[in-house]
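Lab channel / #folding
Pinned by the channel admin:
"Please post every new chain as: sequence first, then the C-alpha cells as a reply. Keep commentary short and put observations after the output so the thread stays searchable."

First post following the new format, from NK:
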Amino acid sequence: MTDALRLVDITEDHLDDVLRIRRQSFGAMASGDREEWRKYSVRFLEDGRYVGVADGDEVVAAARFWDYEQWWGGRRIPLAGVAGVVVSPEYRGRGVGSKLMRGLLRRGVEKGFPLSALYPATTVIYRHLGYELGGSRYRFSFQSADLRRLGGKDVSIRRAGPDDAARFLEVACRVNESRRSNGPLIWPVDEIEEWLADDDNTAFLAEDGFVLYHWANDEELSIEELIAGSEQTARALWATVGSGSSISKTVHAYLPPGDPIHFMVEIEAAKAAEIQRWMLRLLDAPAAIADRGFADSAVLDLDLRIDDPDIPANSNDWHLSVADGSGQLTKARASGDTLRVGPRGLAALYAGTSLVALRGAGLAAGGSLASDAAVDAAFAGSASYMLDYF
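Reply from TO:
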C-alpha cells in the first residue's frame, strides 16, 4: 500500500470505476440491473454513505451502507447496513480493504448510527474490524399442499399495492414490537412501495398481517416476508400462498427459526434449510445500549471494560445497568471484578450470546462468574434473525 492511497467520498464521476471493480468481484450485471445499481448508488453518495479508496485519481475500492433500522428487544435502532464492499484485484491483500472499512466505520459514527451489520463474504477481515456473528437469515421449504390445508377462511384478505406500503410498515412494526423481535430490519416506505409496484411480486394484506411472494421458478414460490399478528391470519396467508399447489409444489420462505408455521404444518419443513450468517458491530456503545429493549424482569448492575481500538469513544470503563426493560451505559471507575470485552465480544453479547460461550472463545474475561447468569438474562431473548439480504 502506497502513500498515494487515500479515502474519498464516492461521486458520480467515480461510478464507472466502482462498476468495473464490482464486475471483477462479482461478475457482469445485466443492463437493466446496471441502471438500477446506478439509481441506488446516487442515493448513497448524495447522503455521504458511499466511501472509497483512491490511488491517485482512480478509485480502487468502495463500500456503502444502507440507512436502516433494526429491531432489538422489540425496539427500533438505527443501523448502518454495509453492502457493496469491493476491492480491485491488484490491490487485494495490501490492507486496502481494512483502510476502506475503517473509513466506513468512521462515517457510520459521524452519521450517528449506534449499530452496523453486514453479510460477510469472509469473516476474517470483518472480525479484525470488530464485527462478530449476530444472527442468521433462514430459508425454509414447505410442501404447498400442506400449506393449502391450514384454513383461515374466515379472515378477510385483499390484494395489496403501492398505496398500502405505509400499512405494511405499520403492521410489521406492531408485530415485531409485541414479539420483542431481535434482528429484523425496518425498510423505508419508498422501498416497500417499489416491491408492491413490481409486477413480479404478489402481495396480500389482512388487518394484522401481510405476505409478499413471487415465483422462484416454474414449480416453486418464494415468500420474501410473511408477518401475522394472530394464528388465524397466519393460517389464511399461508393457505393463500399454498392454494396453487397443483402447479407450485414447494414454497420457500424467509422466516425466524421459531415462527409459528413450524408448529402448524403437519409435514415439517425440508431438512435442508438455507442459513446465511450476518455480523454485527456496535458503533456507539452507550447509544446502542440505551436504544435496545431488555426483558422487563431483568435487573443488572455490572462494571464493564470495553477495549475498541478502531472506535476510541467506545473504549472505557463503564457501568452497565438494566432495569424496567431499559439499559444504560455510563462511564465509571474500574473495579476488581470488571467484565472485559473487545468489540467482537460486545457485539456477540448484545446479540444474546451467552457469556460461557464468549469466555470459551476468548471474547470475554474477568468479571464474576456469579454475575454471568444475570448478564445472560438481561440480553436473552428470541433468536436474532433477518428476513432480508442487502
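NK: The domain at 138-276 is CATH 3.40.630.30 (Aminopeptidase).
TO: also worth noting, The first strand starts at residue 5 and ends at 9.
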